[in-house]
Amino acid sequence: MVALDIGSTKTCALIGEMEEDGSVKFAALGAAESKGWRKGQIVNLELAVSSIRRAVEEAETIVGVPVESAMIGVAGGHVRGVNSRGGITVAARPRDIQREDVRRAIEAARGVQLPEDREVLHVLPQEFFLDAQDNIRDAIGMVGQRLEANVHIVTASGTATQNVVTAVNRAGVRVDDTVLEPLASAESCLTQDERELGACLLDIGGGTTELIAYAGGVVRHTAAVPVGGDHFTNDLAVGLRTPIPEAEKIKREHACAFHDLVTEDTAIEIAGVGNRPHRTVYARMLSDIVEPRAQELLMLVRDELRRGGLESQIPAGLIFTGGGAHLRGLVELAEKFFNLPVRVAAPRGLAGMNEEVSQPEYSTAVGLVLYGARTRRLAGARPAGWTGKLKALFAGQ
């Protein structure tokens, strides 16, 4: 299985090897700086193709096998999620519900009118209703006459998604499937208990923050918030009058999103713009710049949870992942803001992952491999032809 996570900050290609027992083992990771992207959408196709090609070539070099196809993640402000309901009359008299009946009920539920420029990414079943009985997880084999389904429909801009597919194709890779990125991240970060009890995963990327909320074990809401890690970096660059790379370094090493955690007003030397001399700033000043942006992010997340009617339905709290989850103080600020438990999640589920891959910024890539492997197992498909070569390669090491 090959996953391509193409974000505003980095592009990475992760290869996983499917084992005989159905588990997946980490094989290789290739990463490159993303160019040609802005806020989750391609703005320069050639630069985006170049970034994808570099990441894929790095992964290919490690395993010695060409990458022919991959699962790709889709995210950005153009992604929308909506809940829908529909149903069918199974027969004139009650009878056993078949798999085809379930499929027809889901098709009826997904029959919402979409604008011309939008396409359906996922139709995620939530629960079924059979005659007078509700909240059924699996209706197959039960007896009834009227079957209805609640589903969550994820849609995306057709042109934005096609641009990503085109970029991947031009880099010499065929697209196996397109997957909503926070859905993939949830695959590698959330526990089943959190899905059942109710939790919200925030994948904090460079340009946007992707949100997916679960309750009762199923997806209830998906959205994208237009604030990401790059906004914190830009705020520091402007506020401190320092170059973007220097601002990024300061954010990673010194910034804190929660003023109460800054106990010592440490002096920090920063580079000036152009040939201007270095200057000294203080830790509290960094917090004064970063905390308002963090509060804005949390307020936008709260608004989305309210829109989905879920603000009081996520007792398991919030789970942060993605590169932006590293920001110091963000967890503590969120705990105070929401009065809920908050944790930072690193990806898991792939055997043999090294320390580099076991970081929040690779949650989507790991999740895409796990999602693809699970889909392949459910479909009963054989592994792709090159996987056999890959197994032989590892056997020879």
Task: Give a quick set of tags describing it.
11 helices, 30% strand, Nucleotidyltransferase, domain 5, Dna Ligase, domain 1, five-stranded mixed β-sheet, alpha+beta, disordered C terminus, 397 residues
Structure description:
The chain is of the alpha+beta class. Among the domains are: 80-157, Dna Ligase, domain 1, CATH 3.30.1490; 191-344, Nucleotidyltransferase, domain 5 (2-Layer Sandwich). It is 36% helix and 30% strand. It has eleven helices and 20 strands. The strands form six sheets. A five-stranded mixed beta sheet has the order 3-2-1-6-13, sandwiched between helices. A five-stranded mixed beta sheet has the order 16-15-14-19-20, sandwiched between helices. Strand 15 (209-215) and strand 16 (218-225) form a beta hairpin. Helix 4 (181-189) crosses helix 10, helix 6 packs antiparallel against helix 8 and helix 8 (283-307) crosses helix 9 (330-338). The longest helix is centred in the last third of the chain and has 25 residues, at 283-307. The chain is globular and about 85 Å long. The two termini are 20 Å apart. The relative contact order is 0.15. The model is unreliable at 381-397 (pLDDT under 50).
CATH topology of one domain: Nucleotidyltransferase, domain 5
Order of adjacent strands in the largest pleated sheet:
3-2-1-6-13
Query: Alpha-carbon distance between the termini?
Result: 20 Å
Mean pLDDT: 89
- The structural class is alpha+beta
CATH architecture of one domain: 2-Layer Sandwich
Question: Helical percent range?
Answer: 25-40%
